[in-house]
Amino acid sequence: MKTELILLSRVAYRGREITAPRLRGLLALLAGELRAGCSTARLVEGLWRDELPANPGNALRILVSRTRSQLGADVVVSTPTGYRLALGEEQVDSSVVVRCAEAGARYARAGDHAAALASAEEGLAFWDAAPVIDVVPGDPVAELRAERAPLYDSLVRSRALALGRVGRRAEAVAPLTEVFAGAPRDEEVLAELLRAEAATAGPSAALARYDAYRRELRDDLGTDPGAGLKGVHQELLQAEAPAVRYGVPHDPNPLLGRDGDLVAVGGLLRSSRLVSIVGPGGLGKTRLAYAVSRRAEQRVVHFVSLAGVRADEDVAVEVASVLGRGDAPPGGAGAYGGGADVPASIVAALGASPALLVLDNCEQVVRGAAELVRELVARSEGLRVLVTSRSPLGLSSEAVYQLPQLSADIAIELFGQRARAARPGVELPPDAVAELCRHLDGLPLAVELAAARVRVLSVPEIARRLGDRFALLRGGARDAPERHRTLHAVVEWSWNLLEEDARAALRALSVFPGGFTESAAEHLLGDGVDALYLLEQLVDQSLLKAGDTAAGIRFRMLETVREFSAARRAAAGEEEAVTDRFLGWARDFGLENHDVLFGGEPLRHWPRLRAEQDNLVLALRYALAREDHAATAAAGAVLAGIWLTDSTSFHRVFALAADTAAPLSHYRPDARHTEVTRALCVACVTAPFVGYGPLQARHLVTLRRLPPAQPDTLLRALAVVLCALADMRPPGYEALEELCASDAPLLAGVAEAVASYLWEHEGEHERALASARRLLAAVDAVPNPSLKLLGHSRCSELCGDAGLGEEAYRHLLAALDALGAPERPVAPRRACAGASCWPVCNAVSRTRPRSGSGRWSGAGRRSRPRPSRPIWPPGPRSRWPGG
């Protein structure tokens, strides 16, 4: 929430400067006691001191009244004993800085120095300069600023420390020097200053400062620096020795797109003893670990590859051997103490100085790696461990870094770089390259393997062959590990690490092209299967990605993994069984959600339904192929609702109507599937009148054949009106009048909406406005966002035409309110009304003969010709009513 009251650098409310001294003082006093407020006596004492007015209570009331008149009636509120500000702590700068200082200290204790830096900078932004401590007697603003002045010093110190701890040491030198000058015994600040100076001016400068401090401390206090500062001194002494990198090769080519990842992993290594870079195969974890190793702050780095280790008990022996402790006996790592103490020998090889141990490719020996790392971290205080794996180690000391896929731009750059290296002068059409890279999951290995194929194929030919990507993406560089020579080998490496139940789950879940929720996984995997446990395994192996969405946690597979798993599903003969369960999920999802976008909270449901679109499209294809009419109706009803309420996908409703018209024309749904069938038919009959597309008459026939239902939802009410279209005939429109008189509010509301357009088209403006007002009465009886939006829009439009400007403006504001918060998705907001009633009036207009003079006029409104086509909607690119 935006800070509204500023007191620390100036006095202003919502950007408006406040100059009246008493008004400034009142706000400062109330801001100082923001939660409880101030008593009348405290306010009188703070505002008038020794110059009390004749009637202090009345003078205070006048001041409060003047404050309310200038700043707003709700700014200052009364309490039983006095007054308080009606503002939250995040709206007053003097309270925000308190929160920032507390949060910064909390983040620093937790080791989250980036967050501590952000909190400190947020708090310092409220001061233009260092606050003046001198207090002007009788000035509440000056007193409040003096009271907050220590927080400024605290935030300056917090920022200086955080700059050094996040690695921005060149920037940290000046603020740390300034803070230390003001607090020359603050050894925590001095420690960071020494590290910053060592990184910028060199260890010698930092050692000189340390020696000067130590002498001064002995001369003044007769004591030595604390243990922490002595530890930094030892670091500086060791920093004089040359950096050593064991087993870290130089890059054969530039590492693209990983600058942010390098900074992030480096930051984690400063705050955590163990950091694991986790991600699927071919993502570049090893390359990133090489780069981190070369930039590491530790003077000694050991890089150990565990790709060739297959048994957990061999991990420690392999590490000891690589570190030059090959005297550890084979088999001695599984039971430490059964001969040689292998972890102790590794610690001895690492030495006493701070060191970084990198263990690469741990996924096939996770248990052995975890046991060894736990021992090493416990025995060596200065050791940091960096792990690369497709699954985390699961230790309490572990900070997991999920390595992201390459961005589209970086993938395109990498493809171009490797393609030109493979065949100089190769033609790289930008659009074709971008489309190709979009299908490669952002995996560097996949991009490089695809680029290597330009030796014999053009880019469009490579894209066309991606349907069998495992046959295409093979034959990598000879200096790549064997498991990275083909994309198939990369995925198979992870597949072989799974238990059989996890493999079965992956085969089944690969049927979802658009990702899935936990509940969908439970439905597909069936009863008796612990879906959450299996999902955790697959996420740990980087075969699934779990992400927060507006609709909750959602799981996704890389397309590479999905294709691999689908092939294994076909080979296992599980296609029919999995498809049956998938269609069962689609039927249940449709039964539960077919009408929620037309109910009371469409915007709340929109993200969740939109996320399932790709899954429902596939389910619809399966259902049509199998002639599963129940699944066709269920999946189609939800898709129709999504597409009707999305202007960018509206045209897809016509294809849906064409594909489902014939299959459903002879369908006799049971009671359980009647409503989803009704919903699909209503949407398919409605769409042509909203978007001027072809009408599939079979859906109307199917709709009229369904058992009648109470019009207690918008879709059911719309179904009743659609079924009565044939009976709405001039001159009296008795069938329409009967529906308008219905006791069912939604049915009457839909009918009145139709009537309002019809009477306007006939030139009966007052009658049209009366129908629109009755529509609003129906909305009041049964609230519905779609009808509310339509009702106020119609009233605003008709009142504007009639010259009733004030009423038109009120309805316009109400229509905008019905759209929802401005940050909500635009498409569902606009279409809340779009799928309700406009199409029906067009249907009536299209099926009746024209009559009348072609013009209409009346007092207080302009004359205009009757259009040659239905008045509403004006077309797919036009504004919506009330807009």
What is shown here, in short?
This protein is an alpha/beta fold and 883 residues long. The protein folds into seven domains: 156 residues, Winged helix-like DNA-binding domain superfamily/Winged helix DNA-binding domain (Arc Repressor Mutant, subunit A, Orthogonal Bundle); 73 residues, Serine Threonine Protein Phosphatase 5, Tetratricopeptide repeat (Alpha Horseshoe); 157 residues, Rossmann fold, CATH 3.40.50; 84 residues; 76 residues, Winged helix-like DNA-binding domain superfamily/Winged helix DNA-binding domain (Arc Repressor Mutant, subunit A, Orthogonal Bundle), CATH 1.10.10; 102 residues, no CATH class; 152 residues, no CATH class. The protein is built from 40 helices and 16 strands.
Task: Tell me what you see in this structure.
This protein is an alpha/beta fold and 883 residues long. The protein has seven domains: 5-160, Orthogonal Bundle (Arc Repressor Mutant, subunit A), CATH 1.10.10.10; 167-239, Tetratricopeptide repeat domain (Serine Threonine Protein Phosphatase 5, Tetratricopeptide repeat, Alpha Horseshoe); 246-402, Rossmann fold (3-Layer(aba) Sandwich), CATH 3.40.50; 408-491; 498-573, Winged helix-like DNA-binding domain superfamily/Winged helix DNA-binding domain (Arc Repressor Mutant, subunit A, Orthogonal Bundle); 575-676, no CATH class; 714-865, no CATH class. It has 40 helices and 16 strands. A hairpin with a 5-residue loop joins β1 (5-6) and β2. The longest helix is centred in the N-terminal third of the chain and has 26 residues, at 140-165. The protein is flat and about 110 Å long.
